[in-house]
């Protein structure tokens, strides 16, 4: 079946502009996550959504970052007034359950490479 | 303190040999899960193996096994019979049930190179 998809695959923007990154999770997955991977680094958690619950925003680095998930499916990560340090690969993942369990592995999309000039 | 520590930035192994990638973790949560992901140069994250903190046996998935030593807080990945296609970045990650919901905390990764 279809995996997690993300768009665009690459985004180049100028410092100070706003960007929107989109994620389409696997159909039926109730949980959706955003991570950021800077060059040569591990993944850094940003935000996650589970069903209709309030999202866990504890990883968002500043108030320039926000995300929404409409209809329990597609999610958009918005970065306002981009800075050069925002340059990274932004990865989206989804999972079937948000509680513990071995079937809870997260399936990742291909990522969006953001470059802020 | 780092929650996930991977001390090997790079590893080399010869084809058909076994290799162990180290991972230690730090948590006070009695219930947690440990994951290993593979990231080839193409960038996608591929789930490999999972170990729950209450699992009595070490997890195995094909050529992958997890050497889980709970008292030492280590969860090393063992890849047997290495193949050229195993060359990739490998990340260890942890989910803390009490403190973290389902978000994963990742280590900095180990770059594995399989040689002929």
Tell me the greatest interface.
Answer: A-B, 28 and 26 residues
Which residue ranges of chain B are poorly predicted, with pLDDT under 50 across at least 5 consecutive positions? none
Instruction: Give the biggest beta sheet of chain A.
Output: 6 strands, mixed
Main sheet: strands, sense, barrel of chain B:
6 strands, mixed
- C-alpha end-to-end distance of chain A: 37 Å
Q: Overview of this structure, please?
A:
By secondary structure, chain A is mainly β. In chain A, strands 2, 4, 5, 8, 9 and 10 form a 6-stranded mixed β-sheet that branches. In chain A, strands 1-3-7-6 form a 4-stranded antiparallel β-sheet, with no helix packed on it. The model of chain A has no long low-confidence stretch (mean pLDDT about 90). Chain B has 1 helix and 12 strands. In chain B, the strands form 3 sheets. In chain B, strands 2, 5, 6, 10, 11 and 12 form a 6-stranded mixed β-sheet that branches. The longest helix of chain B is centred in the C-terminal third of the chain and has 4 residues. Chains A and B meet through strand 4, strand 5, strand 8 and strand 9 of A and strand 5, strand 6, strand 10 and strand 11 of B.
């Amino acid at each position: 079946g279809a995996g997690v998809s993300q768009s665009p695959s690459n985004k180049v923007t100028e410092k100070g502009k706003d960007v929107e990154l989109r994620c389409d999770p696997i159909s039926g997955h109730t949980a959706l996550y955003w991570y950021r991977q800077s060059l040569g680094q591990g993944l850094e958690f940003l935000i996650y959504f589970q069903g209709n619950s309030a999202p866990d925003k504890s990883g968002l680095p500043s108030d320039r970052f926000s995300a929404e998930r409409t209809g329990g499916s597609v999610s958009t990560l918005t970065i306002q007034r981009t800075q050069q340090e925002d340059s990274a690969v932004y990865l989206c993942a989804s999972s079937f359950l948000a509680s513990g369990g071995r079937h809870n592995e997260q399936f990742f999309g291909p990522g969006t490479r953001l470059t802020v000039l | 303190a780092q929650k996930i520590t991977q001390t090997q930035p790079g590893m080399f192994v010869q084809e058909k040999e076994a290799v162990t990638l180290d991972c230690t973790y730090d948590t006070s949560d009695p219930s947690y899960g440990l994951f290993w992901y593979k990231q080839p140069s193409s960038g996608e994250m591929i789930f490999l193996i999972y170990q729950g903190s209450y699992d009595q046996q070490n997890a195995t998935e094909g050529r992958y096994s997890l050497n889980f030593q709970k008292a030492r807080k280590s969860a090393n990945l063992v890849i047997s019979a290495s193949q050229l296609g195993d060359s990739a970045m490998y990340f260890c990650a942890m989910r803390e049930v009490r403190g973290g919901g389902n978000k994963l905390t990742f280590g900095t990764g180990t770059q594995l190179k399989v040689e002929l």
